[in-house]
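This protein record is not my work; I was only asked to verify it. Take the sequence as given and treat only the tokens as open to question. I have pasted the whole thing underneath without changing anything:
***
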Amino acid sequence: MKNWNQLFIRHGWKLAEKKENFFDIKGETEENISFLLECLEKSRVQYKLNGGMLSLPALAISEEDWLEAVSFQYRGRGEGLWFRPGVEEPKLRELDVYISGIVRQLNRLGFYTAGSCDGHGNRTAHVMITLHRTMEELSELLHALGLKRVHVREQRNSFHLSLPLQQTELLDLAEKLSLIEESWIGQGYDFIKEKIFYVLLENLLAIPGVSGREERVREFVKERLAPFVDFITVDRAGNLLAEKTYRTGNGPVILLNAHLDTVFEIESGREILKDGRVWYSSKGILGADDRAGIAILLHIAEQLHLSSTFSGKVKFIFTVEEECGLVGASQVDEYFLWGTDAAIVVDRSGKGDIVTSCGGYIPFCDASYGTFFEEAAAEEELKGWAATIGGSSDTRIWAEHGIQSVNLSAGYGKEHTNQEFLDVSACYETAKLIEGVFKRSSELRTILREIKRKRMASTILRQAL
């Protein structure tokens, strides 16, 4: 379910959300505000407009209902308006329904539009853009946002951007574009990708979800994860389970795990304070344990979807009530774990730790599995990663099922206290390490087979004795 801010962004309005469901409309044109009010009235939404501030009901209507409100016969006629910064903005009622949000966001970022079409459900959507910025900058941006195919054709005084996307994917792209700051353009693919990760991280840190009340964060994760998996569900305990087969599926089966809950609730009205790469909370806990782990796994899901050479299967488990004694993990149905070769948990404080046992006396994996992560980090030129002992986590549950498991640092520290902090660069480094692990899946497969062979030999020897 989209909120009001998402609906406005996806459908082309430029409003400033001052707080939830309260919008400053002074930055939008009178023409577009008039159209917005018409749509709200058509939807029978009770709104208040006072001094340039628009207030709306707590719950937004569904996007299906909003699409009915913004659609009318012959909408888009008159389209072809050239955007002139500081002089004239596109008129939303003259833009096709599914392209309007993209047009407004491209103009905001300096890619000035001269025409557009959403394809009307039977042909490829496109946007005409004047050459204020380069085609390379646009392609770089769209690749960083997750578009596998970007078709840009240069014309006389503009270039033609084809968007081979479904209608709902066009709306999704507008929402993704809204995350981008103009200063990021031209900084490079890797720079933009990292900045997008920090936006995701900040969004997750804003969602409450103390143990036993994880509904809101679970719904956020489900919505973000669903486009990148084949199967997704919530089990009877409240855990979010998902699965994806990549390429032929002939390869290792890897479990990725983080937990949804925080030990204390995130305090209402708090701010995230940023001192360079280190983030804090203005009051109460930050919530990076384990919102940082969730952000990393959502990032990995998208990267695997976009460009993975990995062949195999990935299972995602986002558990509830981990902070209460691994409650959610212990209730995952065993059938979902069948066939899993290895697990990567992201729920360790600090940076650079590859936790391979609990206290040194409950092993999570064979030593060679931990060594593989050390070598993957070295090959990715990530410094300081080393296998070590640690405390209890969901990792222990997966190890009890015979799954080779490690728990990786997520960059946070002083968790469960008002002094909690998160080194966001270290957090992103963990994501890069996991990307490196998947790039070396053939090597991982060999290691896992050797571990399995040694276990079978040991079992046979014990039985013989």
Observations:
- Residues 441-464 form the longest helix (24 residues).
- The first strand starts at residue 16 and ends at 19.
- The CA atoms of residues 226 and 237 lie 19 Å apart.
- The mean pLDDT is 93.
